[in-house]
Amino acid sequence: MTGQRLLYHTSFSPACRKIRCMMDEMELEFKLMEEPVWQQREEFMKINPSGEIPVLVDGNGLVLCGSYAVTEYLEEGYRVHSLLGDSLQLRAEVRRLIHWVDYKLLREVTQPLLHEKFFRQLLKAGQPDTVVIRRAKRMMEQHLEVFEALLSKQEWLAGDRFTLADISAAAHISLYDYLSDVNWKRGAPLTKWYALIKSRPSFRRVLKDRVRGVKPPEHYENPDF
Amino acid sequence: MTGQRLLYHTSFSPACRKIRCMMDEMELEFKLMEEPVWQQREEFMKINPSGEIPVLVDGNGLVLCGSYAVTEYLEEGYRVHSLLGDSLQLRAEVRRLIHWVDYKLLREVTQPLLHEKFFRQLLKAGQPDTVVIRRAKRMMEQHLEVFEALLSKQEWLAGDRFTLADISAAAHISLYDYLSDVNWKRGAPLTKWYALIKSRPSFRRVLKDRVRGVKPPEHYENPDF
Known about the structure:
225 residues, homodimer, alpha+beta, 4 strands, 8 helices
């Protein structure tokens, strides 16, 4: 018996954005279920006791908790044209970069930035701390320079082809862009790379999300910016 | 050309302990290189720009940065008897638990505990904060109860066979035990499970490590405790 594939997510989770793009690129259909993780809903905690997203409930009933389990499951269960690469070397580089963005970039930039500029308002937890925001934006600049160094010698982050490393990094950057925190006057190569990603149908769908109370800049969905 | 396999590690990193056990279980030979990551040595930053361990330099010259890339590389490149499991279902559960311990347990227990009880001394950064230690130990109790719930219905954390989920969790617990922070009077099933892991040659080798200035309890290496 095969039911509907279901992804528990929130719009502002970079890991969820990554999985949505990944499944779209793999032409896997799925339904989205918005999960307010901060509420720790009892019903959701039964599905994933860690209370974290993304959680994928596949059509076969299998439950995948966390982006590590989801990513590798999709790769092992549905791989056609692999988004992780075909050689051990490329896969090593893709996974190095995924770990980089989903842990280092997350901790140093995404989490503090989202906390101050978005979750404080959502959770009515006081005014944004401008010191934390400034520090996160300085760190963001350092990370973007790392990506630019990679993109100055090759078309995509992990090499000459589009991989899950690009999706993962773009998922974070799209959130900074939603919050108007990226200076795109920096020009190529990062701007060119992000324009290419924004023009992919998988990514365009993610960019359609809107969060109440926060308006993205004019150029947010536009691949020519 | 095949050179020596080299693992950059520190004794007090649970992710490094995991990879050491994993390679030992897979009967892969390797040399250990102690890397004082807090020094951010220029030479090491060239190998892994994120400055993090574990880093594996395989005999073929391939460099694997971070435990995600290392784990999946070992699985894909050297898999004989898989430590991640053979079915998609078991692999999903193993990866769910690895993510749990290497991120949730790490953040809520291992990092604060090691910071207060070990790194403060190492880096001459003041006295341990007893409030932080007490909170980390309360959280530890909650995590151990999660493991106990799993072990009350099956022999190993992910099911009926020993997997990398057991190695991953035991790697963290071995550090708490080194710091004398686990109450083993709790008895079965956690104590029985940990005794079985301690009796494995792969794990016994890890337990031989000593860190200057911190002495483990008498029972630390003893499988009958």
